[in-house]
């Protein structure tokens, strides 16, 4: 940095300015050291992917780019998982798209609106990387070939540490891969084109989620993201609003996610598992970790408070420090 020449007319003012600058720099360094110490117990791995923190954003609830950066340091989160992208732009469903559900839960039928991978690479990824985010891309498609095209467009892209393969969007009529082991395997296999570790994002709307998880792992996934939204519907009995059928997320989904994580951890002790569903506090995160998740994602809570991923992270950090433990020690505690 270029030194600012002293102004001979105001030496005292220059010295005061320098002292203020030094104090600010010391404060920044202390804050960085404190953050590093606070986050140390949260380090984890999902399969082969190492993350500085076990708390991420959930796909579709934090935008495609650095939108949440206005509310916290994206680089301090375990990862930012971006909204699912297709190889092509997609308009999503017509409105209305969301409806409140009891107890802070919500229904959505957004339908995967997105700009396509190419636009995302040019316009959104650079902003995420500039803010120091660890980026997990999420892709979707209507056929295995479309999954392959979206994954292929991400091949060799610097800064994407993993690929979440969304085979479980409930708002895309006729394309629920995650209800079939063979369709899941086909989509996950096609996504190998990205050349980064694959996490299969699965649906809770199945009789045996372990069967689908086994198919995804057999097709090359090293991680499972559990779970996407649950099929739900709201009817306005006054008739003022049209019934809304969509995916249920938020607190009502939490026990469903805990169960899915638990059952898959028991069935697949070596798999990377990410728990997602109704996490809005550090304790919610601990519950998923105890069920066997290696990391968690925060989704719907972010709509009520955009700082939720950092709040969950801070609460999880405090929970660990108060007990002198780490995320690594907590993972799978309920199965031991
Ligand atoms: C408005 C909205 C949009 C979503 N979009 C996506 C998406 O594009 N891709 C995906 O894999 N999951 C998507 N999800 C599902 C979330 O990532 C998450 O799996 C689910 O909401 C459960 O977590 P939560 O209860 O913390 O929200 C979306 C959820 C919501 C509420």
Tell me about this structure:
Helices cover 35% and strands 18% of the residues. With 336 residues, the protein is α/β, with parallel strands linked by helices. The strands form 3 sheets. The chain has an 8-stranded parallel beta sheet with strand order 3-14-13-10-9-8-7-4. Helix 5 (181-190) runs parallel beside helix 6, helix 7 runs parallel beside helix 8 (282-291) and helix 8 (282-291) crosses helix 10 (308-322). Flavin mononucleotide (FMN) is lined by residues 58-61, 83-84, 106, 108, 110, 112, 138, 166, 201, 228-229, 249-250, 253, 276-279, 298-300.
Instruction: Tell me the overall shape.
Output: globular
| Structural class computed from helices and strand pairing | alpha/beta
- Ranges where pLDDT stays below 50 over 5 or more residues in a row are none
**H-E string:** HEEEEEEHHEHEHEHEEEHEHEHHH
Number of helices: 11
Helix content: 25-40%
Please describe the biggest sheet, giving its number of strands, its sense, and whether it closes into a barrel: 8 strands, parallel
Q: What value does the average pLDDT take?
A: 93
What ligand molecules are bound, each kind once? flavin mononucleotide
Number of DSSP E strands: 14
- Overall radius of gyration: 22 Å
Strand order within the widest sheet? 3-14-13-10-9-8-7-4
- Quaternary structure annotation: single chain
In percent, how much strand structure appears in the residues? 15-25%
What gap, in angstroms, lies between the N and C termini? Answer: 55 Å
Secondary-structure topology with pairs:
Layout: H1 11-39, E1 44-46, E2 49-51, E3 55-57, E4 80-81, E5 98-101, E6 105-108, H2 117-123, H3 125-130, E7 135-139, H4 144-153, E8 160-166, H5 181-190, E9 198-202, H6 209-218, E10 223-226, E11 230-234, E12 244-249, H7 254-267, E13 272-276, H8 282-291, E14 295-298, H9 301-304, H10 308-322, H11 327-330
Parallel strand pairs: 3-14, 4-7, 7-8, 8-9, 9-10, 10-13, 13-14
Antiparallel strand pairs: 1-2, 5-6, 6-12, 11-12
Helix pairs in contact: 4-5, 5-6, 7-8, 8-10
This protein binds flavin mononucleotide.
Flavin mononucleotide (FMN) is lined by residues 58-61, 83-84, 106, 108, 110, 112, 138, 166, 201, 228-229, 249-250, 253, 276-279, 298-300.
């Amino acid at each position: 940095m270029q030194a600012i020449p002293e102004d001979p007319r105001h030496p005292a003012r220059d010295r005061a300015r320098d002292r203020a600058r030094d104090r600010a720099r010391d404060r920044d360094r202390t804050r960085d050291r404190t953050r590093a110490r606070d986050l140390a117990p949260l380090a984890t791995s999902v399969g082969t992917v190492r993350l500085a923190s076990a708390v991420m954003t959930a796909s579709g609830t934090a935008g495609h780019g650095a939108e949440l950066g206005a509310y916290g340091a994206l680089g301090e989160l375990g990862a930012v998982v971006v909204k699912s992208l297709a190889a092509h732009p997609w308009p999503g469903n017509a409105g209305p798209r969301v409806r409140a559900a009891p107890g802070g839960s919500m229904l959505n039928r957004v339908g995967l609106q997105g700009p396509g991978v190419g636009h995302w690479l040019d316009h959104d990824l650079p902003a995420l990387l500039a803010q120091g985010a660890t980026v997990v891309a999420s892709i979707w498609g209507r056929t295995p070939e479309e999954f392959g095209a979206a994954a292929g467009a991400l091949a060799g892209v610097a800064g994407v540490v993993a690929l979440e393969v969304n085979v479980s969007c409930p708002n895309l009529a006729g394309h629920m891969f995650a209800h079939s082991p063979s369709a899941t395997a086909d989509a996950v296999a096609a996504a190998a084109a990205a050349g980064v570790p694959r996490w299969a994002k699965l649906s809770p709307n199945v009789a045996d989620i372990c069967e689908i998880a086994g198919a995804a792992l057999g097709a090359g996934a090293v991680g499972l993201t559990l779970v996407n939204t649950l099929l739900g519907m709201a009817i306005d009995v006054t008739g003022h609003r049209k019934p809304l059928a969509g995916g249920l997320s938020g607190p009502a989904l939490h026990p469903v996610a805990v169960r899915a994580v638990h059952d898959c951890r028991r069935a697949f002790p070596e798999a990377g598992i990410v728990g997602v569903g109704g996490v809005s506090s550090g304790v919610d995160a601990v519950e998923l970790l105890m069920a066997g998740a290696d990391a968690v994602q925060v989704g719907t809570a972010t709509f009520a408070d955009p700082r939720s991923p950092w709040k969950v992270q801070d609460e999880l950090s405090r929970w660990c420090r108060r007990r002198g433990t780490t995320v690594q020690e907590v993972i799978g505690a309920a199965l031991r």
